Amino acid sequence: MSSAQTPIGSGFGAHSTAHEVLAGQDLSGSTAVVTGGHSGLGLETTRALAGAGAHVIVGARDVDAARQALLGLDRVEARSLDLTDLASVRRFAEDIVASGRRVRYVINSAGVMACPQTRVGPGAELQFATNHLGHFALVNLLWPAIADGGRVVSVSSAGHHFSPIRWDDINFLQGYDKWQAYGQSKTANVLFAVHLDLLGRERGIHAFALHPGAIITPLQRHVPREEMIALGWMREDGAPANPDALKTPQQGAATQVWAATSPLLEGKGGRYCEDCDVAVLASDDPQALSGVKPYAIDRVQAQRLWELSARLTGIDMISR
Q: Which of these is catalytic: 105, 182, 272, 295?
């Protein structure tokens, strides 16, 4: 799988925006599902897809807030979705399946980062439950509605460098580290795409994962100001420590929109992308956060995670 991590020369880059990626594409008649599509990168993704003609269904925990954020956008609707509540995920997915819509694009954009230790459901660690398990259940339950030739895109992060899957203690029962928990959940996003792509091949459904870049969004809401200063993200006056390294939200949304729609990626599923191209394999330098770690694209670990996720959620409509 590591040999597949070779850039393909997309013609876009770190400064490309979601609207630029879609320039000239007509998505009329297609339906997209975007989790968290009312905030941060998700909102810019929704705007770009709707602007190109797609009908966008936004999954949001706070539907009223989502509808406020989406005012003025044509072909966009918000529906209730709490990724930590499997009953909510089931209702959301089953309503779409029952509507008869064929979903061309599923973009798993919602997420939580570096939050205080929290457990949901039967004791799952919140970041793993939200970022991975909820999306795992969602895609499985949406499977009958996903169109042949469709794409499923999971927004991972360079944060996957922080931790592989902790097979012996996924829920951090032996001591919680918020950044390792975040890293594990982002590694899970990549492994999910690897195995989903394998399972979707008969129907021409491809899956991708990606790092959107460094962007200031509501995702940082759990990181205190003093910690952002200590991490070198922010100066004492509150300004970005390295503004040249930051992307705008429009630039940050570009890679997920590109992964969902680019014709250049046809037949190239299961890859991890960054800066609107296929990413390289990560170097051994522990300080470097570019590229994808080998453990995140390992097919054996991807299948193992799939089987574990199916047991934890009680849902598997794709591999059985």
A: 182
